Prior knowledge:
Layout: E1 2-5, E2 11-14, H1 36-47, H2 63-77, E3 99-103, H3 105-116, E4 121-125, E5 159-164, H4 170-180, E6 187-188, E7 201-204, H5 218-225
Parallel strand pairs: 3-4, 4-5, 5-7, 6-7
Antiparallel strand pairs: 1-2, 1-3
Helix pairs in contact: 1-3
Amino acid sequence: MTQRTLDGGRKRVLALDFAGVNEVPDVVAAGMMNPDNYGNIRLESIEGVDHTPLININYHDSLEGHLIEGLKFLHAQYPEEDWGYYLNQDGTVRYSDVIITGLSHGATSAAFFGMVRRVWRAVSSSGPRDNTCGTDPACAGGVVATWLKGTPKTPIDRFYGITGSQDVQYPEILYAMERLGYVGKPVNVQQVAAPYNDSHRLTSNDGHARFCNDARYAAACNYMFGVPAQNQ
């Protein structure tokens, strides 16, 4: 999903259906423990360009394919809504005005997207993950995705995430945030008020939740998405 928020109060939200958890193999369950596989699968599903033989995603089934063609369609159908603003003259997306966000598998894809494209923000709910560290903070026996060790194209201070302590993936999500270098230390949003010590690693007493569909987390989501106070 992509969202843009302006100080003037206008925003556009576009939910994208593309190759996700049901279309790509689980690299752990399938025994494909090469740490490069995580990123190669996600990159192919984003771009629709061949990066791995493990999946076969073309442009029209990819995230960017759906995003670009969707923006073109919306601009043509609803010119008064100015969807074309998000497209550069060469047909690429004006990512500087886009927030990429996702849940669970999509939460990790959102963070990965921020690694390979320079967006305004990358916001993850119940993610990111892409490691098998379990509860071992040193990850001595697990597999860590290669991309978690990379240099992001989006400045790391634009990455945000929220995860529940009752989520079985909680330790691995915290590991991914630490490995990527998210700003701050884990802060429980049910114990500390916004702006949460300016941390970008938010936690709760919940499980594998959507968070931003829940009014209890409105303040946390406004914070992560940078919604101006006058628009909350």
